Amino acid sequence: MNPIPEPSVERLLILARLLDRLDVQFITSGEIEARTGWSSNTIRKDISYLEGSFASPAGYDREKLSGAIKTALGLDKPQRFCVVGLGRLGSAYLNYPAFAEEGYELVAGFDSSVNRIEILRSPVPLYPAYKMAEVISRFQISLALLCVPPEEAQHATDRLVAAGIKGIINFAPVVLQVPEGIQVRNVNVVDELRAISATIQCS
Predict the structure, then answer these.
(1) Are residues 92 and 178 in the same domain?
(2) Does the residue 115 lie in any domain?
């Protein structure tokens, strides 16, 4: 299968979630357009990257299309991840139930404060930050949520990369430096507020 462009990946992720929430057997590109705002041509182009047959005169078979998207994007395989930084944000994710529902297994939490680890109540095992390499290797963790303060983010990232982490969701408002092949997604609520405010202002 040819590589899927990033914009198509983003749309296919949204489409998979949409399909899973519908209670229909078939759906047309026109119906997807009405629900998403994407053009029918864009939708058909995105779907063309997938392998399999799920089109019919009645439209796309919803279950088959959803399955093809998940297979193409690796969503049909369980993924293990960890949380680094157990302040208010990081500790909140320790009890977030949707991860398991979506096939993501949270197997460890890390913090530089041993005292914080001792007092936190968590269904997930917690470890001091110096044990990152050992634990990540032992449990074959590939992804990390980075919830540390900005001044600690790059150092924590370097340790994660050295331990074998392949993907990082970065909640710190800093630009991380990572080697080629390591994927980073930056999540900043303030940036999203600014973006939507600017869009409203300019529309």
Answers:
(1) yes
(2) yes
Count of domains for the chain? 2
Angstrom distances, CA of residue 138 to CA of 108, 109, 134, 141? 11, 14, 6, 8
Residue 149 corresponds to which tokens in the numbers above? Answer: 């303060």
Q: Is the domain of 103 the same as that of 57?
A: no
CB of 75 within 8 A of CB of 16? Answer: yes
Same domain, 101 and 176: yes
Q: Which of 36, 33, 64, 32 is nearest to 51 (CA)?
A: 64
CA angle 97, 106, 64 (to 5 degrees): 70
Residue 9 has pLDDT above 90, yes or no: yes
- The per-residue pLDDT for range 91-128, each reduced to its tens digit, is 999 989 889 888 899 999 999 999 999 999 999 999 99
Range of the domain at 15: 6-72
In this predicted structure, the answer to whether residue 3 has a pLDDT above a threshold of 90 is no
150 half-sphere exposure, CB direction, 13 A CA radius: 5
**Judgement on whether residues 94 and 170 belong to the same structural domain of the protein:** yes
Calpha distance 157→162 (Å, rounded): 8
Tell me if the pTM is above 0.70.
yes
